[in-house]
Amino acid sequence: MQKLFFKTAVTAAALCFSSMALAQQKYSVSGTVKDHKNGELLIGVTVKVNEDPSISVVANEYGFYSLSLPEGNYTLIVSYPGYRDFEYAIKVEQNTKVDLPLDQEDQKVGKIDEVVISGVKKNKNLTTAQMGTETLSIKNIEKLPVLFGEKDVMKTIQLLPGIKSNGEGSSGFSVRGGATDQNLILLDEAPVYNASHLLGFFSTFNSDALKDASIIKGNSPAQYGGRLSSVMDVKMKDGNNKDYNVNGGIGLISSRLSVEGPIQNEKSSFIVSGRRTYADLFLKTSDDYKDSKLYFYDLNLKANYQINENNRLYLSGYFGRDVLGLGDTFSTDWGNTTATLRWNSIINSKLFSNTSFIYSNYNYKISLKSNDNTFGLDSQIEDWNLKQDFTWFAGNKHSVRFGLQSIYHTITPSSASGTSVSSFPRNPRKSWENAVYINDDFKASDKFTVNYGLRLSTFSVLGGDTYNTYENGVITDSRFLEKGQFGKTYFNLEPRITANYRINEVSSVKAGYSRNTQNLHLLSNSSSGNPTDQWIGSSYSVKPEIADQISAGYSRNFNNNNYELNAEIYYKSMQNQIDFKNGAQISFDTAADVESELLYGKGRAYGLELIAKKKSGRLTGWISYTLSKTERKIDGINDNEWYNARMDKTHDISIVATYELNKKWSLSGLFLYSTGNAVTFPTAKYELNGQTIFQYGSRNADRMPSYHRMDLSATYEPESTKRFKGSWSFGIYNIYGRENAYTITFEDNPNNPGTTRAMQTSLFRWVPNVTYNFKF
Predict the structure, then answer these.
(1) Could you tell me whether strands 46-49 and 52-58 are parallel, antiparallel, or unpaired per DSSP bridges?
(2) Distance between CA 538 and CA 180 in Å, rounded?
C-alpha cells in the first residue's frame, strides 16, 4: 500500500512539475520600432501587451525591444508621442521577430489639441525609476523664441529646472551646482569638449540633423561616466531610407541646409546637414573691416547600411569651426571634429550589442602680428575611444545593460610661440581611461521599479612628460615618465540606484543615490567660459573629482495626464574640487606648470526643483523654478571658509508657452529671471607708480545684477503641398529692452579720482529675427 501511495505521489508530482514547466515556458517577441515613412529607428517607444498591461517594455536607444510571453494570442500596443498608437495582433508559438512601424500624427489635420511638448510617454514620469531626466522634442524646439532665430537644443535645456545658463547668450550651462566642464556632452556617443559657436551665442548642434536629445542631472545609469553633474546625450538622424528630402532655413545672419535619402532603398541611407553664418559678408561693405573674418560653420554627416536583418553599420561625423580675424594682425579659430563608427547587432531575441569606435578632437589656435613681432597660442585635446555595450532583456521584469569603455586621451597644454616671447613648447600628456559597468532596470511590481548599477573606472597617467607634485604651489616631488610607461593609476567604484514607487494612478515618489568621478578638468577664470580655457587630466597633484548625490522627488499628473507636476530635492557633496589660488599668474610663454597655481578642496550643492507642464491642447508649455545653493571650501581661499561658487544662483525661473492660434499660426513666448552670478568686486584701491591697483574682497562674495528678459515669436505655416512645405518664423529677443549686465569693470571716476565707478557692458537690447524654413 505504501509503495502504491509513493508511486502515485511521485507520478502526481511529476505531472505537476511538467504542467508547471509547460505553463512557465515563454517565447521571445522582439524586433525594432521604426518610423513608417522614413525608416528612422525610434528611441524609447513603449510596447505593451493588451491582454496583460503589466507586461510592457521600452525600446532602447537603438530602437530594439524584447518581450517574453507564454504561448497564445496577443495584441501588442505600440505608443510614442507624436505618433498614432499602433496595434499588432500576434500568435506566439515560438521565438518571433516583429518589426513595428509607426505613423506620425498630422497635427494640421482636424483637431489641433495634441501638441505634446515632451518627447516621452505622457505618464513616464510616474512609471520610470530614472530621476532628474528630461527628453526634448526636436520638433517643438523650433517654435521657441531664441537668439538670432536659431533653434537650439542647448538653449532649450537651460529653460529646465536645475540647469542654469552661464551668461547672456551663452551655450555653457551649470547643472545642480556643477561647473561647465562637469557636463558630459555626447553627439552620437562622441564627447564634445566645446559645444559653442561665436563665444557661446550659438551651440554646435544643428537641430535639423538631430533625432533625439536628453539630459540626466547626476543620477545617470552606470553606462555613463566621466563627469560629475550631468549627461547630455544627443543623437543624429539616421537619414530617410525611403525617399529623398531637402530642408533648411534662411535667417538674417545664418542659413542651413540638409539633404537625406536612401543609398539603397530601405537598406541604407544618408544625411548631410550644413550651417554657416555670414556676418563677415556684411563686414566687407565697410572699408575699416573689409579684411575681417567673423563666421562659423558646421557639417553633420551620417550614413548607415543594413548588412542583414540582425546587423547594421553606422558612420557619423561632425566638423565645426569658428574663425575670427582682423586682417593679418589677429586671427583665432577653434573647433571640434568627431567621428563614430557603430555596429549594431541583434545577437538573439533577448541580447542586443552595440560596438562603437569613436574619435574626438578639440583644438584652438591664436596668432598675433605686430610689425616684425609674432605671437601664437594653441592647445588640443584628442580622444580615441572603444565602447562595447550590451542590452539584455532578461525577462519582462529585467532590462540589463553591461559593457566596457576604453579611452586614450592626448592633451596638449596651452603653449606659446613667436618672436616676442620665449618659446617653451609643452609635451602632450597622455592618459588611459577605462571602465566596466552593469546596470539593471528592474520592474519589481506594477507599483515599484528600481534602476541600480555599478561602474568601476580607472585612470592611468602615461609617460612622455615630467610630472610634478605640489603642496600649496611648492614642488615636493618631480618624476619623468618614459614614453609608454605607466605612472599613477586611480581606481574608483561608482554605485548608482534610483527607485520609483507609484502611489496610485496619478502620483508617485522617487529617491536615488549616485556617485560619479571625473578625471578631465577645465581650467577657466570666467563663468561663461571661452575657447582658450584649457583642459588638464588627473595627475600626481590633480586627483579625480568625486561627487555623491542623494535626491528625492514627487510626481503627480492631472486631467488624464495632460498636466504634470514634478518636484525634486537634492544634496550633492563634492571632493577634490579645483580653483585658482589668490593672485594666480597664468602665463603661456614660460615653462611654469599651471598646476602650481591650483588649490584643492571640497564643495556642496543643494536645492529644490519644480516644474509644472501643460502637455496638450492649443496652449502648451511649462513653468520651472529652482531654489539652490552651491559652495566651495578650499584651503588657501577665503580664510579656509565656505564661499560661493561662481555658478551659484539662488533663484532661477523660466516660463515657456506655445499657443496654436489656428492651423497656420502659432505664437510662443518665454520669460526668464535669475539671481546674478557670484563675483568678486574690489573693496579698496591704492596707487603704485602712477597706476591704480584694486584690492579685492572675499572670493565670490558679491553679485552681478539680477537677469531677466522676455522673448516672443510667431510661426506661420501656409498650406503645404505633397512635396513642399514652408514656414516663416518672426521673433524679438528681449522685447522690453532690458540691459542685462554681461560684464562689470571698475575704473577711477574721472570727475573725482578719489572714487571708483563701475562700468557695465550689455550685449543685446532688442534683437529681431526673421527665418524662412523649407522642406521638400
Answers:
(1) antiparallel
(2) 17
Whether residue 290 contacts residue 283, with contact meaning beta carbons closer than 8 Å, is answered with yes
Round to whole Å and give the CA distance between 401 and 125: 21
Residue 563 neighbours by CB under 8 Å, 6+ apart: 557, 612, 613, 614, 615
Nearest CA among 31, 134, 316, 246 for reference residue 725: 246
Instruction: Examine the pLDDT at 497 and tell me if it is beyond 50.
Output: yes
Query: Cell numbers of 528, please?
Result: 561663461
The Cα-based distances of 291 to 26, 326, 473 in angstroms read 72, 6, 44
| pLDDT given at position 287 | 67
CA–CA separation, 510 and 211 (whole Å): 29
> Hey, which residues does 382 pair with through a beta bridge?
361, 410
pLDDT in tens, 165-211: 877 756 678 999 998 899 999 999 999 998 888 766 788 888 889 98
Radius of gyration of the chain (CA): 28
Q: pLDDT-based confidence at 154, cuts 50/70/90? A: confident
Sign of CA dihedral 262, 266, 269, 273: positive
For residue 280, the model assigns a pLDDT of 74
Cell numbers 530617410: residue: 240
Mean pLDDT in residue range 22-45? 83
pLDDT tens sequence across 458-484: 999 999 888 988 887 788 899 999 998
Residue 198 is predicted with a pLDDT of 78
The DSSP bridge pattern shows strands 311-326 and 619-634 to be: unpaired
Q: What are phi and psi of 265, to 5 degrees?
A: -50, 125
Confidence of residue 308 (pLDDT cuts 50, 70, 90): very high
Where does the pLDDT of residue 546 fall: very low under 50, low under 70, confident under 90, or very high at 90 and above? very high
For residue 428 the three cell numbers come to 602632450
239 near 217, Cβ under 8 Å?
no
The residue whose grid cell reads 495584441 is: 75
Cell 526673421 sits at which residue? Answer: 770
The secondary structure of residue 80, as a DSSP letter, is: -
User: Looking at the predicted structure, is the pLDDT value of residue 4 above 50?
Assistant: no
- In 103-204, DSSP assigns E strands to 133-136, 163-165, 173-175, 183-187, 190-191, 196-197, 202-203
Burial class (CB in 10 A: 0-12, 13-18, 19+), 670: buried
The residue type at 239? G
Structure confidence at residue 591 (pLDDT): 56
pLDDT score, position 423: 59
Distance in angstroms (rounded) separating the CA atoms of residues 729 and 248 = 13
Q: In angstroms, rounded to a whole number, what is the distance separating the alpha carbons of residues 131 and 728?
A: 37
Closest CA to 151 of 271, 274, 258, 249: 249
DSSP 762: -
418: amino acid identity, one letter? G
Q: Which amino acid is at 259?
A: V
- Taking 70 as the threshold, does the pLDDT of residue 100 lie above it? yes
The number of residues making up the chain comes to 776
DSSP string, 640-690: GS-EE-TT--SEEEEEEEEEE-SSSEEEEEEEEEEPPPEE--EEEEEEETT
- pLDDT value at 589 more than 70: no
Q: Do the Cβ atoms of 362 and 381 come closer than 8 Å?
A: yes
3-state helix vs strand vs coil in the chain, percent to 5: 10, 60, 35
Q: Which amino acid is at 575?
A: Q
pTM: 0.90
Span 414-424, pLDDT tens digits: 777 777 666 56
Distances (CA, A) of 321 to 166, 175, 191, 309, 416: 22, 26, 16, 38, 21
Residues 739/766, Cβ–Cβ less than 8 Å: no
What whole-number distance in Å separates Cα of residue 708 and Cα of residue 715? 24
Residue 204's φ and ψ, nearest 5 degrees, are: -75, -10
Average pLDDT over residues 353-380: 88
Say which amino acid occupies 407.
I
